[in-house]
Amino acid sequence: MTLTQLTYVLAVDTYRHFGMAAEKCFVTQPTLSMQIQKLEEELDVLIFDRSKQPVVPTEIGQQIIAQARTIVREADRMAEVIQAGKEEIAGTFVLGIIPTVATSLLPLFLKSFAKAYPKVQLTVEELQTHEIIERLKNDRLDAAILATPLEDKGIIERPLYYEPFMAYVPEDHRLAKEAFVLRSELQLDDLLLLNQGHCFRNSVINLCRSAFKGNEQTAGIHLESGSFETLISLARQGLGMTLVPYLKALELKKQKDKLLLKSFEHPQPTREISVVYNRSQLKQQLIEGLSHIIQKSIPSRLLQQPEGDVISPLTS
User: Fold this and answer.
1) Are 161 and 147 in contact (CB under 8 A)?
2) Quick one: average pLDDT of 223-232?
3) Model confidence, pTM
4) 10 Å Cβ neighbour count for 199?
5) Strands 191-194 vs 224-225: parallel, antiparallel or unpaired
6) Of 77, 62, 68, which Cα lies nearest the Cα of 3?
7) In terms of Cα–Cα distance, which of 262, 152, 251, 244 is closest to 207?
8) What is the 3-state secondary structure (H, E, C) of the chain?
9) Higher pLDDT, 307 or 263
10) Cα–Cα distance for residue pair 207/16, rounded to 1 Å
């Protein structure tokens, strides 16, 4: 039994396809298949049921994979111990981030991170929350940045900042003359929303849940989009109002757009943005460094925990 064989087993479990697993491991499929077959012969068990597509672990295979994940993780920990002893941080770091955070946050800290850790090869993957959780648990991400709380016992959450919601209200809207927006004034059928899958959409629905009745909709135009830019453009044309995170609001360049932004009356609805990682994650020093750089890169007012409740990204 070798670490290489166990690594190949984990790759097949992750991708459920021998060819794709071989590609990700930078070996040929025959080489990967042969090594897994040798391991199966040594253990006298079948780890994968190859008769099914995609391939799936056998019952005993699931137990072997769980143990293999622990063994490979502990071997990786040895390399981290050696690096720490040399006071050197290097290697790869795969970071997941949700789309509603990525566009505003990444430009604020990526250059600083690259300067602070020149020997780290950073890969950033823009993913939705459910994909991030799955990849963290399968050790395909080292850490991620998303809205919390997740309410998942297998994931550690470290809050980075608290981002208020801002309302973008067009000139002819019923709330256009208001200095501040009240939560009670929100109507879900009057809001332009992000598409299904975006946790910011879920947060907005939670914010409006007192007015939300199942899937009931009033007559008229109901629009959804995958980007804040589209929502703002549609709102500008008088098709409804929309809500945007504070950092996205800061990106608006046109003075007219800035004048259409309204704050909520205190306590402002706010989302919590955290760095999250698997409880068994190895790269703690790098995660701490990343967190510190992000917090130095954003407005200091966002570091303060809000007076009111944080709006959950989970639907209720």
Assistant:
1) no
2) 74
3) 0.74
4) 24
5) parallel
6) 68
7) 244
8) CCHHHHHHHHHHHHHCCHHHHHHHHCCCHHHHHHHHHHHHHHHCCCCEECCCCCCEECHHHHHHHHHHHHHHHHHHHHHHHHHHHCCCCCEEEEEEECHHHHHHHHHHHHHHHHHHCCCEEEEEEECCHHHHHHHHHCCCCCEEEEEECCCCCCEEEEEEEEEEEEEECCCCCCCCCCCCECHHHCCHHHEEEECCCCHHHHHHHHHCCCCCCCCCCCCCCCCEECCHHHHHHHHHCCCCEEEEEHHHHHCCCCHHHHHCEECECCCCCEEEEEEEEECCCCCHHHHHHHHHHHHHHCCHHHHCCCCCCECCCCCC
9) 263
10) 39
Tokens standing for residue 177:
């003359």
Alpha carbon of residue 11 to chain centroid? 22
User: Is residue 63 pLDDT above 80, yes or no?
Assistant: yes
Q: Mean pLDDT for the chain?
A: 85
Q: Which residues of 37-53 are buried (b: 16+ CB within 10 A; e: fewer)?
A: eebbeeeeeebbeeeee
The amino acid occupying position 50 is: R
Inter-CA distances, 169 with 8, 115, 200, 201, 247, Å: 54, 40, 18, 17, 17
Q: pLDDT-based confidence at 81, cuts 50/70/90?
A: low
Which residue shows structure tokens 């919390």?
148
Using left for φ > 0, alpha for ψ between -120 and 50, and beta otherwise, residue 90 falls in: beta
Cα separation, 152 vs 106, whole angstroms: 25
**221 CB burial (10 A radius; 0-12, 13-18, 19+):** exposed
Residues near 104 by Cβ (< 8 Å), separated by ≥ 6? 245, 247, 248, 250, 251
**What residue has token string 């090869």?**
121
Rg (CA), the chain: 23
